[in-house]
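User: I'm curious whether this sequence folds into something compact or stays loose and floppy. Could you predict its structure so I can see for myself?
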Amino acid sequence: MTKEDLVPTASSRGPRALRILGTGAAVPDEALTSAELDERLGLPPGTVEDKTGVRVRYVERGSAAELGARAARKALAAAGVDLDDVDVVIGASATPDQPLPCNAALLHEELAPGRPIPAWDVNASCMSFLVALDLAATLVDAGRHERILIVSSDLASVGLDWSDLGASGIFGDGAAAAVVGPADGSGSAVLSSGFETHSEGAHSCEIRGGGSRYAPDRVEGDYADWGRFRMDGGAVFRLAFRHLPPFVDRLLAAAGVTMDDLSVVVPHQASHHGISWVRQQLGAGDRVVDIYAEHGNQVGASLPSALHAAIETGRLRRGDHALLLGTGAGISLGGMVLCY
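Assistant: Here's the prediction. I'll summarize afterward.
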C-alpha cells in the first residue's frame, strides 16, 4: 500500500447530491486601512500594504456570534427560507468567542433563542467551512437532514502580535454563511473531496493558551502572552504548498474534471503569496477568486466569503464546476470539487 492509497477521498463512493441554496457574507462596520496601520506602528507610508498585500481589513468590536448572525440572515434570505426550515446550525469558525459553550450555541442565541434547533461546531481552523460543507453533503445525501445552515465567523484581529507584521497585518475580521439542502435532481453535487493533515507542522501556526495544555494555573508569566497568535509563515507556506499539487491532481481526477473544466477556483485567502502560487503553480490563472486585498485573511470565514463573492458577481453560475481549496493549522489541506 502506498501513501497515496491512504489519502481519504469521499469521492470513492461517487458524487453526493447537494445544492447550495443561498449564501451571505458580512464585514464589520470599522475599516482599518494599511495606511492607518503604517501611521499607528510608526512605519514609512506603504510599508504594511507592501509587506502584507492587504489594502484594507475590517475590525469587529462585538462578538463573532453577532457578526455571524448577520451573515446567516443574509444567507437565509438568499435561499428563500427562514430558521423554521433549518434542521441544524453548524458553527464553522476558528476563533470562538469563548472555549465553552460551542460558538454555534452563542450563534443560536443570536438567531433563535426560543427555538431548540440543534447547533454544534466544526473547528478545522481556516478549513472549518470546507469540512462543515463536506459533512453537510454526507448528512443531506443520506437523508439525515433536509436543510443545514453553516456559519463561519472569525475575529482574527484579536490576540495579534504587532511586532510580527507578517503574521499580524494579513488578518481581518469577517463572516460568511451558506444554506444547503437536497439537489432535487438539479445536478448540483459534491463531485469529490479530500483532506490531509501533515502534523510535522502542528506548531507552526497556533494559539497555545485557552485550553487544558497551557491553562492559567499551568504556566508562569503574563497569561496574555499565551493567548497571542503565533505563526511561522515560511514553514507553513513550504509545507502546505509542497503537498498541494498532487493533492489537487487527485481531487480533479476523482471528480472526472480538469482545471480547464472549472469556472472558478476558490482558495482560502491565506496571503497574497499563497493566492499567487495557486494561480501560477496550479495553472488556475484568472479562474482564481481573489478578495484578499480588500478583506485580508479572515481565517475560517475567508473561503466562504470568497465563494459568496463568486456567486454574487456571477462568476459561478448554476451548472458550473468549482474547486474549493483550503489550507489550515495542523498543517492541513482540504479540497472539494462542486457542480454548483
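Summary: The longest helix spans residues 233-255. The CA atoms of residues 200 and 331 lie 7 Å apart.
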